Amino acid sequence: MRSGISEVGITENSNLGITERRWRLALTGLLAVYGVWCGLTPSRFHLPDALNLAIHETGHLVFGWGGDVLTALGGTLFQLILPLAFVVSFWRNQDRHAASVALWWVGQNFWNIARYVADARAQELPLVGGGEHDWTFLLATWGKLDQDLTLARDVRFVAWVIVAASIWLGVKTVGSGKWEVGSEK
């Protein structure tokens, strides 16, 4: 049997035992705390950053067929597409909590992207393998290089919204902390 919040299509598997619900809620709480730390310390290394960088660099290869602009943008696109694929997969398989965790990863990637965008003019971040800074090239191509910090601020805002939504979704799907006595499985 499933219970749900019909207006947003959230369902909760009522077959989850109290222990699994508590672990899922604990994970959501951990992601909330870690997410705030990630958002408040954008210049620090965060646990997912190494994985995100590998995905970003792979994106340049995946989109390399599309010319200079798409190749440069491909790193950022793939950095978002891959975790979004997990969101969609988990959502379609009715595991809304897992989808919320993957959505948190999307938000964390937006913070990572904002840091890269903000560096477009300064170019202080070390680049993998040298080469040209993606966002310097992209913003210069689009005539927006002088707006790098404004765009980065907006991307950071999107990150906060996505991370907050992922935490809300995580709590809602676990049952908002309403444990059913005797549901331990």
Structural commentary:
With 185 residues, this protein is mostly helical. The protein has one domain (13-174). The chain is 65% helix and 4% strand. Helix 1 (18-40) packs parallel to helix 4, helix 1 packs antiparallel against helix 6 and helix 3 (67-92) runs antiparallel to helix 4.
Which range best describes the helical content: under 10%, 10-25%, 25-40%, 40-55%, 55-70% or over 70%? 55-70%
User: Percent of residues in beta strands?
Assistant: under 5%
- The order of strands across the largest sheet is 1-2
- How many DSSP E strands? 2
The biggest sheet, with number of strands, parallel, antiparallel or mixed sense and barrel status, is: 2 strands, antiparallel
> CA-to-CA gap between the ends?
15 Å
Shape from CA axes?
elongated
Low-confidence stretches: 1-12, 176-185
Order of helices and strands: EEHHHHHH
What is the count of DSSP helices, taking H or I runs of 4+ residues?
6
Sum this structure up briefly:
The protein is mainly alpha-helical.
Characteristics:
elongated; disordered C terminus; 185 residues; disordered N terminus
List the helices and strands and how they pair.
Elements: E1 2-5, E2 10-13, H1 18-40, H2 49-62, H3 67-92, H4 96-118, H5 134-141, H6 148-174
Antiparallel strand pairs: 1-2
Helix pairs in contact: 1-4, 1-6, 2-3, 3-4, 3-5, 4-6
